[in-house]
């Protein structure tokens, strides 16, 4: 609420340019108001001519409508405010605040929504279990290996149907769904375009049940805004488009839209069978105190089964999954109708502080840092894959055949380790080994190339550069290439895996940049311009 002086000052200096005296307001509200409305309208037309952007035209129209509404229906406001504090001054103050909040320096493109992103080992994470550094790293390595063995992002590129193991996933977002809100931790991925959470009742399809998760499952009966989507709705087949259609009838007994997210049978690398099945629904989604989507579409999973055994690892499991991919049903795409302007960004913290500080995913026209370069997205309709043209290690360009990267490259924060096809990986491994020949090689479970640096105070480590299309170079420091595997920092390993070591040759040319290599880089996923931007920075300082 503005003080009296503030309201008057805003009235005189605001973009409205009109501050009628009390006598004029009285005449307006007593019925002889037409000429005053015309006068106000002329003033707004003048303002619209001055301000060229659509955003300000929209605000000006809203201002005009509200002034007319006040003039016609709020006559009693004069009696309430009195003594040099006309009702219109309060409206002007409110609308000026609204205008500045809507367009700032001249357009509404600067609206940004920040959603907290937590590493699963952060004490505030719903998935936090508390463990030694060795245990945390071991679990992180296991999650990366299982993801690679699972086919990884290659499944998405080939439009295969699959579901993510909820025991893995390095970063989580908090979702509040329903009215009143029910809170869940959801695994975040940039390579998928689906959102789903486990829902009560579970096991209603064929008795398979749901996996154990941290916290309560979503209970639709407790939400007053929960709605099933009917089979005849245009939204129902759109969900099928994301997964090439369900494997079974997409219409339930009550005409509700059903979904079947799975990767099963012969399409799976080792014949595993994992799936999430349930209803396709809408409900209110709240991301912070200011942003709420009243009709957010997501999967309400009533059954989850996993014959690969990965869910039996004892890890804390998330309550669902949130994809930020370019598909119509991702969180990013649904937010795009409100705030995201076809782009989002994040900047992952260095490993040593990610377990005690949080970062954010920013949706909207985010501020780009100096030095950001862009590389084209190969096919923005299916994902954010980009073209890798070569790799340099410590100043030496490697002779990797161009075909080694033909399957594309995805930036996926869901796994820690980066993954390259066998051909490219061998070049990288040999180059790193040459640079590290002064140190003693050793072995460590789950890792391929490791060194014993227990007697070395400050090991000299190589750096690298990834050369993407359009001369966009992605610089990798030693911290992006290596991981210390223990609390005492005596074992140092290359933070990469060979895809062919853990999966079949169908995915041999598909590559993933994991979150270790992404740390201390601002990444900008710009769907609107079909490009991915990046630059190295200290993410803790922005």
Distance between the termini: 32 Å
Q: What is the overall number of helices?
A: 15
Kindly report the CATH topology of the largest domain: Cathepsin D, subunit A, domain 1
Which oligomeric form is depicted? single chain
Shape: globular
Q: What CATH architecture of the largest domain would you give?
A: Beta Barrel
Which stretches of 5+ consecutive residues score pLDDT under 50? 1-108, 150-168, 240-249, 263-273, 307-315, 501-507
CATH superfamily of the largest domain: Acid Proteases
For the record, the count of structural domains works out to 3
> Which structural category fits the helices and strands?
alpha+beta
Strand content: 25-35%
Main sheet characteristics: 6 strands, mixed, barrel
Average pLDDT over all residues: 72
Description:
The chain has about 550 residues and is of the alpha+beta class. The protein has three domains: about 5-105, no CATH class; about 155-180 and about 195-320, no CATH class; about 360-540, Beta Barrel (Cathepsin D, subunit A, domain 1). It contains 15 helices and 26 strands. The strands form five sheets. The protein has a six-stranded mixed beta barrel with strand order 2-3-9-4-8-7. A four-stranded antiparallel sheet has the order 14-13-19-20. Helix 1 (about 5-15) crosses helix 6, helix 3 packs antiparallel against helix 4 (about 55-75) and helix 4 (about 55-75) packs antiparallel against helix 6. The two termini are about 30 Å apart. About 45% of the residues are buried.
């Amino acid at each position: 609420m503005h003080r009296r002086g503030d309201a008057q000052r805003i009235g005189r200096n605001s973009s409205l340019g009109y501050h009628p005296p009390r006598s004029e307001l009285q005449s307006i509200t007593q019925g002889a108001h037409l000429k005053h409305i015309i006068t106000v309208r002329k003033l707004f037309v003048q303002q619209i001519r001055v301000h060229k952007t659509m955003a300000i035209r929209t605000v000006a129209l809203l201002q005009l409508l509200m002034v007319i509404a006040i003039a016609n229906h709020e006559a009693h406001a004069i009696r309430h405010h009195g003594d040099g504090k006309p009702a219109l001054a309060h409206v002007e103050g409110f609308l000026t605040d609204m205008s500045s909040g809507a367009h700032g320096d001249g357009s509404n493109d600067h609206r940004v929504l920040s959603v907290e992103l937590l590493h699963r080992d952060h004490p505030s994470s719903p998935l936090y279990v508390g463990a030694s550094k060795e245990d945390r790293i071991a679990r992180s390595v296991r999650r990366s290996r299982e993801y690679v063995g699972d086919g990884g992002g290659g499944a998405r590129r080939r439009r295969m149907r699959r579901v993510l193991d909820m025991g893995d996933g390095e970063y989580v977002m908090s979702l509040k769904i329903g009215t009143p809100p029910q809170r869940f931790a959801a695994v975040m991925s940039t390579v998928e375009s689906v959102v789903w959470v486990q829902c009560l009742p579970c096991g209603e399809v064929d008795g398979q049940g749901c996996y154990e998760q941290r916290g309560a499952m979503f209970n639709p009966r407790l939400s007053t805004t929960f709605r099933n989507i009917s089979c005849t709705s245009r939204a129902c087949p759109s969900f099928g488009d994301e997964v090439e259609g369900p494997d079974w009838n997409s219409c339930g007994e009550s005409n509700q839209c059903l979904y079947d997210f799975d990767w099963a049978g012969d399409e799976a690398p080792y014949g595993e069978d994992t799936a999430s099945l349930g209803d396709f629904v809408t409900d209110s989604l709240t991301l912070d105190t200011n942003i709420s989507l009243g009709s957010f579409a997501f999967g309400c999973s009533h059954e989850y089964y996993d014959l690969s055994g990965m869910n039996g690892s004892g890890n804390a499991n998330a309550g669902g999954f949130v994809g930020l991919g370019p598909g119509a049903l991702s969180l990013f795409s649904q937010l795009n109708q409100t705030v995201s302007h076809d782009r989002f960004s994040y900047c992952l913290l260095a490993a040593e502080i990610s377990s005690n500080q949080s970062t954010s995913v920013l949706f909207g026209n985010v501020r780009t840092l100096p030095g950001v370069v862009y590389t084209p997205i190969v096919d923005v309709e299916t994902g954010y894959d980009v073209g890798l043209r070569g790799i340099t290690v410590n100043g030496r360009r490697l002779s990797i055949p161009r075909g080694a990267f033909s399957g594309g490259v995805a930036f996926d924060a869901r796994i820690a380790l980066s993954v390259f096809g066998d051909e490219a990986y061998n070049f990288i491994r040999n180059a790193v080994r040459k640079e590290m020949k002064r140190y003693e090689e050793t072995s460590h479970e789950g890792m391929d190339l490791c060194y014993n640096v227990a007697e070395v105070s400050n090991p000299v480590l190589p750096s690298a550069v990834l050369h993407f299309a359009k001369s966009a170079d992605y610089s990798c420091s030693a911290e992006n290439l290596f991981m210390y595997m223990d609390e005492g920092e005596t074992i140092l390993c290359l933070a990469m895996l060979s895809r062919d070591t853990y999966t079949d040759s169908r995915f041999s040319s598909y590559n993933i940049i994991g979150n270790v290599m992404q740390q201390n880089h601002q990444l900008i996923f710009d769907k609107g311009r079909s490009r991915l931007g990046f630059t190295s920075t200290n993410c803790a300082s922005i």
